[in-house]
């Protein structure tokens, strides 16, 4: 038997083969669906990307929480947060303090006036040089958090013993001064971290606290104006915001009373980090 193969037949066979190749490519290279997709998504969400070593935010919608470069859900597995309860008009106030330059008393005054609890993340030098202010923070109901003993780049510390020394050294100094155990809230200096750091802090019983709202307030010789500060802080406030301010800022000391008044006027209340949703 002879079979006649015309040019049209060859074209049809070639076209069919091409479709098969395309379908195979789609199967291997497009995102999977069903259980395989769920597993791949879970793996991606559970790890800190290797390229991430600095905490970062993307503000996409005014009045809404920003998107972190690690998701809130992924952070929770290591008992870490950058935002609190996004379903409630609540703000968590935090201050980083590497040294004292005379602005903290006014900040404490404003917090007291508004009955607003805060967390002050301190380093070893601060406890040594401003013990009376540390005691005042404690006496007025604020949390003193762990910003490490020497403020190093913690993302470069992989050894558990070295990591532990930075946190334990500060905690021991706090206890020696106040007679109290330090509450276990930790903020990585400069927001530098790694997945290993998150695991190390969790192993020591710490909650790692990043932030969802901050602005450039740390250059003491180039402070923002009041208007510049309000322009950054007022429009970007959002439900569950963890606010990072620096207590070395003259601007913060000057505007804090009015800033808190503005946020209260929008219906917000101020909560302690101890109230973060678990």
Secondary structure topology:
Layout: H1 7-29, H2 34-45, E1 57-58, E2 67-68, H3 72-76, E3 80-81, E4 90-97, H4 104-113, E5 118-122, H5 124-129, H6 131-139, E6 143-146, H7 160-178, E7 185-186, H8 195-203, E8 207-209, H9 226-233, E9 241-246, H10 250-265, E10 269-270
Parallel strand pairs: 3-8, 4-5, 4-9, 4-10, 5-6, 7-8
Antiparallel strand pairs: 1-2
Helix pairs in contact: 4-10, 9-10
Written overview of the protein:
By secondary structure, the chain is α/β, with parallel strands linked by helices. The chain is 42% helix and 13% strand. The strands form three sheets. Strands 4, 5, 6, 9 and 10 form a five-stranded parallel β-sheet that branches. Strands 3-8-7 form a three-stranded parallel β-sheet. Helix 8 links the parallel strand 7 and strand 8. Helix 4 packs parallel to helix 10 and helix 9 packs across helix 10. The longest helix is centred in the N-terminal third of the chain and has 23 residues. The radius of gyration is 26 Å and the shape is globular. The relative contact order is 0.17. The N terminus is likely disordered.
